[in-house]
Amino acid sequence: MKHLSEYRDRALCESLLEKINRTHRTPINLMEVCGTHTMSIARNGIRQILPKTINLISGPGCPVCVTSQYEIDQFIELANQKDVIITTFGDLMRVPGSRSSLQKERANGADVRVVYSTLDCLDIAEKNPAKEVVFLGVGFETTAPTIAAAILGAQKKKLRNFSVISAHKVVPPALVALMENEQVKVDGFICPGHVSVIIGARAYEPIAEKYHVPCVVTGFEPVDILQGLSMLVDQFESDDAKVEIAYRRTVTWEGNGRAMQVLNQVFESEDAEWRGLGVIPGSGLKIRNEFSEFDALRKFDLDVPYATDPPGCACGEILAGTKNPFQCPLFGKACTPETPVGPCMVSSEGTCAAYYRYHGQEIES
After folding, report:
1. Of residues 302, 301, 303, 314, the one with CA closest to residue 341
2. What ranges do the domains of the chain cover?
3. Angle of the 35-43 helix axis to the 351-358 helix axis, nearest 10
């Protein structure tokens, strides 16, 4: 418990861990579907303190990581368009495309700016009326409502020089795709806390019922994660399969109705390609026709060839839960945070980044 020794809820953590050890009898694969969970699990040494028969699998919970290589190449192509200002959150800057990255293109003269809010993009558009300002929309249901609000704001302000390239994805269809994948063995889902604040825990009920798989929404502190694991073990050992909330201080059954209303006002569902999972029906968000003037894919004529993952990179298999980073031949060798080959090593929520940072001593062994 050395990683938890200074945690303020140490006694509760130890009690939950004792309960898990007492209750757990059968080997079980549990997948965390959130990059923040992946980081917290690694940072706090939770894998190391669990029984060996509990296998924690990192899933497709990093939105930057699941963005396809083709979409990354589209972003880079946009950065090279004349009189275009690219605005993006920071995690995308170093993600390698087929031939370059946004960071490299900025070094070569492209106008690529990191923003902390989509409202910053509207301000940039107002101050640069002769330029096209494009926001790179990557994220799950957590951030999509804020992008939708920016589009509504641009419409209200009549900012015709602002647009969004939407690579947004939604989580529940990805869980269905995982359960339909014969190569993936998941006995329970640690459901994402941030996404669930928006969509509500009820969104996972069809998955729990159809596939008889336990689902527990948890928070991000060690005590939250251990509480969720304890609840998943209880369900598994009793052959139960339902949705439970271990994060009630933030997550409700119904979610944030206002945020979902704004999201659905601007976006509609479409099929989308996920790195490692392929095309998943109804898992993407495209801008509705009535907001087409703010859709960068309609505004710009991008000629980008389809691209696949870099040779040797196991990022897709890691996102699908069929490999861990140590099983990638490039991990810690050709692929490091300084020289990333795939997005899983770049993003602050990437599985490879988490393993490299917090399990670095295991790379040498």
Report:
1. 314
2. 1-359
3. 10
Secondary structure of residue 287 in the 3-state scheme: strand
Contacts of 156 (CB under 8 A, 6+ apart): none
User: What is the C-alpha to C-alpha distance for residues 80 and 78, in angstroms, rounded to an integer?
Assistant: 5
0.85 exceeded by the pTM?
yes
Token digits of residue 89? 């959150």
pLDDT reading at 345 higher than 70: yes
pLDDT beyond 60 at 113: yes
Domain 1-359 homologous superfamily, CATH: HypD, alpha/beta domain 2 (3.40.50.11740)
For 82, other C-beta atoms within 10 Å of its C-beta total: 6
Could you give the C-alpha distances from 185 to 30, 57, 65, 70, 273, in angstroms and in order?
A: 9, 10, 21, 28, 21
- Candidates 239, 238, 219, 237; CA nearest to 227 is 219
How confident is the model over 155-213, as pLDDT tens digits? 999 999 999 999 999 999 999 999 999 999 999 999 999 999 999 999 999 999 999 99
- Tens-place pLDDT, residues 67-79: 999 999 999 999 9
Q: State the Cα–Cα distance between residues 153 and 265, nearest whole angstrom.
A: 13
- Determine the Cα–Cα distance for residues 136 and 75; give it in Å rounded to an integer: 7
